[in-house]
Amino acid sequence: MSSPAPLQTLSRDLSWLRFNARVLQEAQSPDVPLLERLKFLAIFSSNLDEFFKVRVATLRRLVKLKKKTRAKLNERPKRELRKVLEEVSRQQEEFGVTFREQLLPELHRNHIHLLSDAELTDKQREWAKHYFQQKVRDLLSPVVLDDTLHHLFLKDQTVYLTFFLSQPRDPEAGLADERVLIMELPTKRHGGRFVRLPDEGQERYVLFLDDVIRIGAAELFPGYEQVAVNAIKLSRDAELDIEEEVSGDLMEIIRSSLAKRATGFPARLLFDPEMPQETLQAIKQKTGITDEELVEGGRYHNFRDFFGFPEFDEPSFYYPARPALPHPTLPRTGSLLAAVGQRDHLLHLPYQSFDYVTRLLREAATDPRVSAISITLYRVASKSAVVKALLKAAKHGKQVTAIVELKARFDEESNLFWADKLQRAGANVIFTPPELKVHSKLLLIARREDDESTRRYGYFSTGNFNESTSELYTDHGLFTANEQLTRESEAVFDYLRDQQTVPELEHLLVAPFGLRSGLNALIDYEIKQVHKGNEAYILLKVNSVEDRGMIAKLYEASAAGVRVELLVRGIGCLVPGQPGFSENITQHGLIDRFLEHSRVYVFAHGGEEKVFVSSADWMTRNLDRRVEVAFPILDEALRAEVRFLLDLQRHDTVKARDFDNNYLLPEDGKKGLQAQEATYAWLKGLKRRQRDAAAKVKPEKKQKI
């Protein structure tokens, strides 16, 4: 019997790099407003930093494992690392070309000049020297790399400037005077990375802080004939490896790991290729960094600082304002609990305001009939209105239970801070066990009604309880008092409290104990429908498809004749359109103004379409090692609403790309459809359409008396 053919997939890391290439495409797109294109460069750079800190660092640790161990893990990290670094190098080169040959000339055409120190006029140079003396010089503290310094520690994600000082060889002594110094670029203390020079008519000028220091370098070191100033930036291994920890106090593990994060193994040292070899050699010697961590960069690093590029009073440079829309069925004032008690409501972020969530929490905090509030907290804002409402509820005597996730990468410190606040206020704070991450977004409110019965009010979401990201991420949130859903939500919270009793669920699909099997059953049902001659399809919108088991299941469905449409923003390891196993699968992704974050699963289900909205991507970690919730949209009108918005994305011909990152274009003569713009316009008119539909149902006329 022959062995089955290996599963055809694209590697997770190379797929992620394809995603970041789509981000770079937005920076290159002339249809994107000019200064928004700079922000996409910042996003690309920030993404790549995290990729090196986490994924590349992980690959390098795998390379260092013993060969037998790697064989057991079925890993070939050396080859994967080589491919990854080759692709990163290619993208870095494209990034530089985009910046130098596209954006800088476009800024110039729009009378904005991002100058280097070599491009300044004499007048501007004098201004920059004066600025250096008045605003910058006192912020600098260079360190000499000499024999007295035994080890140099470089902070993570921080730009440093190096100085190579040299004097001609002394004829008498026969020696040249050379020194290498280094210092942190004082971006935070300065108040940003950029310096705005005086305008000249309609021409506006901007200078990197780096170049202000280059201009002042001769003044800093007056005894040297040559001063070469270059930039470096280190990214350190940020993977906490918490999943490997199975015992001990998790809070202490997290705190310890956060401390180690700053001193983690070097993952990448970006350096200026114009840097003198003497400088680079000194850096390597004092830090212990090896050649394999060196990555050739450019003159400037940390392009994420372009998030703080100076603003200009020109609306065309930015996306048009899209103020959050009022919700068509939730009241602007008055009781939200009463409104939720009457019917289900679906919230679409960021098109509609997250304030409805914080208003509901504030109302529950002071409602004398509310007895308990339970919530899962994965990522919260730095000045969290959500947690402040929970603190208020605790002070009003409500039983507040907060399931706080301490393993939310890069937000652990913030979560610890708010957890401490909640504990001091008397809330019941539950930290998840080391082997399990709670990624679901659930809120449950218990209230005593007029008849003295207890009624539950719930909010299920694809997005975090975070006001900041709610303005940037597209998410769906369901307000409901449906007894079937809220009772099962309470069962999930009971499980999170004791981690013992696996809930019996009929409507919710919950990982790690029911989501995978539930999805497999739904896919199997579609396969059966094909065999019966019925229409069968699956529509899947997620951030990532990586789990090999689910990919194999989708291949099985495709081979059986089920039509599968994938809308994947980020990682997509499934290979669509391949004869014999995936010819019935199509895949495209959407990158636009807002970050697509909602997950929607649609199954034809024999003509009785099922629509689930979820916090879970189709990744192994989401299905097996996290608490995730997929919740059905039971209200027929809301189900149609989700499907309509999903269909807009399915038919996008402006911002959608196929599996190979080619734009999906409209047919000849047809206008392109931009899903996010169309979504805003449709939701803006939703209340009017509902009102018009209601008006068509005319009540019977009363007879005059």
From TrEMBL:
The keyword Hydrolase does not apply. Residues 123-309 form the Polyphosphate kinase middle domain. The active site is at 439 (phosphohistidine intermediate). It catalyses: [phosphate](n) + ATP = [phosphate](n+1) + ADP. Its cofactor is Mg(2+). ATP binds at residues 47, 473, 569, 597. InterPro entries: PP_kinase (IPR003414), PP_kinase_C_1 (IPR041108), PP_kinase_middle (IPR024953), PP_kinase_middle_dom_sf (IPR036830), PPK_C_dom2 (IPR025200), PPK_N_dom (IPR025198), PPK_N_dom_sf (IPR036832). Mg(2+) binds at residues 379, 409. An intermediate of this reaction is the autophosphorylated ppk in which a phosphate is covalently linked to a histidine residue through a N-P bond. It is an enzyme of class 2 (transferase). GO terms for molecular function: ATP binding; metal ion binding; polyphosphate kinase activity. GO terms for cellular component: polyphosphate kinase complex. Keywords: ATP-binding, Kinase, Magnesium, Metal-binding, Nucleotide-binding, Phosphoprotein, Transferase. Residues 10-114 form the Polyphosphate kinase N-terminal domain. Its EC number is 2.7.4.1. GO terms for biological process: polyphosphate biosynthetic process. HAMAP family: Polyphosphate_kinase (MF_00347). NCBIfam families: poly_P_kin (TIGR03705), PRK05443.1-1 (NF003917). This is Polyphosphate kinase. The gene is ppk.
